[in-house]
Amino acid sequence: MEGGNQSGISEFILLGLSDQPEQQRLLLFLFLLMYLITGLGNLLIMMAISCDPHLHTPMYFFLSNLSLVDIGFISTTIPKMLNNHISKNRTIPYAGCLTQVFFFIWFGGIDSVLLAAMAYDRYVAICAPLHYSTIMTPRVCAFLVLMSWLWAYTNSLTHTVLLTRLSFCDHSKIPHFFCDLGSLLKLACSDTFINDLMFFTGGAITTILPFIGILISYGHIFMAVLRISSVSGKQKVFSTCGSHLTVVCLFYGTIIGVYFSPTSTHTAQQDTAATVMYTVVTPMLNPFIYSLRNKDMKGALKMLITRKPGFTLRL
Does the predicted TM-score (pTM) go above 0.85? Predict the structure, then answer.
């Protein structure tokens, strides 16, 4: 990647979240704690799903992949930020910055498409239950997951390659805690028309289209729920879908607010706070949202922790 550097710049400076030493120490503790909780929580989700045969269904197959991606997503940014705070060195090499951009967009894109796949799975399960087993086959589920990885990879690689054609002159200070693509485009002193076009086109396909698909799926689910006469039946549906909707609102709401709303409507500080929400808070909350509101997951986690006889780990 360094060979494509048109500006000759060797490193960027990540300004981080705060210049105050007291706030930096507090942020260091909080982000380290959230990182550890995210890693442990999502790892437990994957192990519980792997261990419990009752959870070997499409919904939990997507959830285990989401947990894996969330670990990668938060690991793209937080370890470097923590290292910068500890070492008092805020620089990141040019190649390291592009690498961070690549993995950030890749994991974020997979997250987005997986959430749409999970919504489609719930739509089929609730609106077409008799055809669920014939529609959501293992091959279809594997195809959806594979396509999410491949599309996000292609989109991320395109953004990263296009970045190498930009010149940054002496503008090396990034007002963020990681190499954010939008911040890098604002620093460039060369023409960014193609990058901006790809930014909004790729962003629309990766974020807006899955979000619209989720809204359509849950619109059909809501109409189906209204036709259920049983109160317990309605509660079961809301319990199953409520956790997914919570994640969707946190993830897409903050992304759309940061990248697809007029810049005049929000400040850089608000952008950073919203970015923390979908890059750090959402991956951390996922294990709690999916386990605390799901009886099957709570049972599997309890069996995993207590190690009941006959319950073996299968990876």
Answer: yes
